[in-house]
Amino acid sequence: MAHPDAATTNGYTPLHISAREGQVDVASVLLEAGAAHSLATKKGFTPLHVAAKYGSLDVAKLLLQRRAAADSAGKNGLTPLHVAAHYDNQKVALLLLEKGASPHATAKNGYTPLHIAAKKNQMQIASTLLNYGAETNIVTKQGVTPLHLASQEGHTDMVTLLLDKGANIHMSTKVFWF
């Protein structure tokens, strides 16, 4: 019998692939056969990260029901919530927050999910993160705030949202250009 955690050369297991494709029934069978929901690819992504990337809400729900860690961090410190913010997967982001994912989680570069949402102009996710207590003035290792990123990218509506939620316009970065 084939092992349910057999991986590709990049570390993708059948569970990662079913998460990518949104195949919740396949994911359920794999988990019943003993597949591990915590195995990471070579880039450090668990099946929950993959579900967050591809917006596979039902697979994400299943993985969380099976006790997958909502805040598991990959090699660069990215959590599934960072990934959902990057790819604008609002429903998965909301699910992760409801299941205890931290809106304050910081990647190794200091980015929070709000930094990513601000940079990519993901208005709905930014609003949700702010409603869950994300800090508007949190800084990266270079002293960059979500407001700096939204301003750099020319995202007027995001700048307005962040200012309305208390972003400090007087904060300066540690570097001239970021």
TrEMBL record:
Q: Which PROSITE patterns match?
A: ANK_REP_REGION, ANK_REPEAT
InterPro entries noted in UniProt: Ankyrin_rpt (IPR002110), Ankyrin_rpt-contain_sf (IPR036770), Multifunctional_ANK_Repeat (IPR051165)
Q: Which UniProt keywords apply?
A: ANK repeat, Repeat
Q: Where are ANK repeat segments found?
A: 10-42, 43-75, 76-108, 109-141, 142-174
Record Gene3D superfamilies: Ankyrin repeat-containing domain
- The organism's place on the tree of life at top rank: Eukaryota
Q: What is this protein called?
A: Ankyrin-2
Native species: Camelus dromedarius (Dromedary)
